[in-house]
Amino acid sequence: MNIIKKTTNYSQFKFLAQNREPNPRYLIESISQKNLLAEHPIICDTNLNIIDGQNRLRAAESLKVPIFYLVSENVSIEDISRCQIQKTWVLSDYLKYYGTREEYNFIQELMFTYKVPIHFAVSCCNPDRHIYQLFRRGKFRIVKDKEEIIVAMKNLVEIHAFLRDLLKNTGKKDVFLYHKLKEALWIFVTEKEYDHARMMHALNQYPEHALDCMRYNSKTTIVSCLKTRVYNFKRYKKKME
User: What whole-number distance in Å separates Cα of residue 122 and Cα of residue 108?
Assistant: First the structure.
C-alpha cells in the first residue's frame, strides 16, 4: 500500500520534459480559497519524477504550503498521459510527449517552418480518418513522401500568402483565411499534374476570380472553382465559347 507523505522540500521532485508545461495560476487561486492538496496527492515514481501533479506542486511552492505525495513502483514515464484525469490532453501535449520520435519531430518542423496548426500538419502526412486517435496512442506514421509534403507545403504557403494580400488590398483590416480554404488548397496542390508556376501566373492574371473562389465554404467547391476560374480559366473559357 502506498503511503501519502507531505513535505515542503519542493526541490526534491523532478519535472519530466515529456510532460506539459506547468501552469498553476488557476490552482493557486483555488488553493488560496480552500486547500484540498491533502485530498489530491501528487504521484511520483521511485526516482521522484512527477508523473501526475506538477501544477499542484508549483502551486504549493508558490503558496509555501506542504505538498502531499505518494511514491509508486507501479508508475513510469509511460503513464503520464493516463494520469491526466483533471484536464484532457490535446494533440500538442501528445506531440511534446512523443516529440523525440522521428514522425512526431517532423510534425513539429512543419508547424514551426510553415506556421500551420497541428491538426492540419498531421492530416497532411496521413489522411487516415482515425489518425488523431493513432497520434494520441503514439502510433502515428507518415504515409507520404516527406520531400513531396515539404514541396506541397511551400506551394500552399505561397498561395495562402497571395490570397491573404489579395484580401488586404480590398480594404479588409482583419484578414482571416478559414480552415476549409487551407484544406482545399492542400487538395489542390497535391494533385498529380499540379504545376505551381502555372498557378501563381494564373493568380496574378485573374486575382478577381481567386477572390470569388474564397466566397465558398465547401472544400470541393473551392477546389473546383480554383481549377475552372483560375488555374484552367483559358481552357474553361474556350470550352464555354
Answer: 10
